[in-house]
Amino acid sequence: MKKKLLFVESNTTGTGMLALRKAAGWGLTPIFLCNRPERYLGLEETGSQVIVCDTNDLDELKKTIEANVSKEEICGVATTSEFYLEAVAELATHYGLPGNPPQAMRTARNKSLTRQALAKAGVGQPRFAIVKGEADLAQALATVPVPCVVKPADDSGSNDVLLCQTQEEVARHASKILAISTNMRGQATAQTVLIEEYVDAPEFSVEMFTWEGKTVCVGITEKSLTGYPYFVESRHIFPAKLAPEVEEEIRSTVTRALAAIGVKNGATHTELKLTAAGAKIIEINARLAGGMIPELIRHATGIDMLEQQIRCSVDGPTDLHVVYDGHAGIRFIMADTQGVLADIRGVEAAKSVPGVQQVIVTGKPGAQVQPPQNAYHRLGSVIVKGDTYEATTVALDAALDKIEVVLEAAAIKS
């Protein structure tokens, strides 16, 4: 009987380790393939068989799997890491298991390929230009004038995403990105820069599940960002408060976008801006949402998105009939100034605010902190469930008002 579920790396939050524990709880044997097991806090408690190998080399992955696992025992291949979606698609195809076409994952991972696919399909998106070297800059700036957004084509977590106000700033930031040859997982980067029209409009994300080409919308998340020039998510509310006709436009735009890049199976998290001219796709992530959005969905609908995503690697999701029970929201704890973290106070007081479901602190005393330039600079979060959108936002604000980020030299409010 096929009982072994292969995981190729994971993200480094609790979600990745929780996925392994869930698989073990279903009677499966999770096989965790990774190159640095020490990266994963709590890995030894997941019930997984850990195999260390070069996960950035597809041929090495195949050899390692074949040396340790019988093909007849493998029921699926999964990951919770953005950086290994393409490898998982290649392995699933190789073993004849559920998954996405490798080319679809290649297109989703490389945002320049995403832009080209959406343009070909006529899906709404910002104006853009692709820069692969300094020689491309002049033409790019003629296509997309400043102010514009400059970002790497294949990174994650808002890393190196910058709003540039001058051509000189664009050139400097593009040069910085082009010089980065490996990412945080040691993989070769595309060394490609996207220059995009800055769209000043409300932002949303759309959480979808696709199985055998049929797509279901679980819901739309309202997103708030920190101040510019960086684009770090500071608050999410699920579900967003939207008119039915607006919801339909957003859903249909994203469905067309997913078809354009070729998604066939699994979760997707698509970010867009809602403009006067309609919805414009910012990016498509062929994975579960980050930022604890799956947890908000669980509170608001009872649907366990992580469980459904793992099932998409094996035999498909269960019935995704969505019924909303109020709203859920998250706000992130952040530093307002740069310094050394001394303490984060007021956690118990924040937990006492009606509606608060959990308060998580990830910042460690003694660590260097700063106003966030990417998601990795956040220091924790507060999650609230409310009967209404308004009650949820009020409780989030009340809880955050009780949290104090204390630096060694001064105390500041979040």
What does this structure look like?
The protein is an alpha+beta fold. The chain has four domains: 94 residues, Rossmann fold (3-Layer(aba) Sandwich); 71 residues, Dna Ligase, domain 1, CATH 3.30.1490.20; 127 residues, D-amino Acid Aminotransferase, Chain A, domain 1 (2-Layer Sandwich), CATH 3.30.470; 88 residues, D-amino Acid Aminotransferase, Chain A, domain 1. Helices cover 30% and strands 29% of the residues. The protein has an eight-stranded antiparallel beta sheet with strand order 13-12-9-10-11-14-18-16, with helices on both faces. It has a four-stranded parallel beta sheet with strand order 3-2-1-4, sandwiched between helices. A four-stranded antiparallel beta sheet has the order 5-8-6-7, with helices on both faces. Strand 10 and strand 11 form a beta hairpin. Helix 3 runs antiparallel to helix 4 and helix 4 packs across helix 5. The N and C termini lie far apart (52 Å). The mean pLDDT is 94. This is ATP-grasp domain-containing protein. InterPro entries: ATP-dep_AA_Ligase, ATP-grasp, LAL_C2.
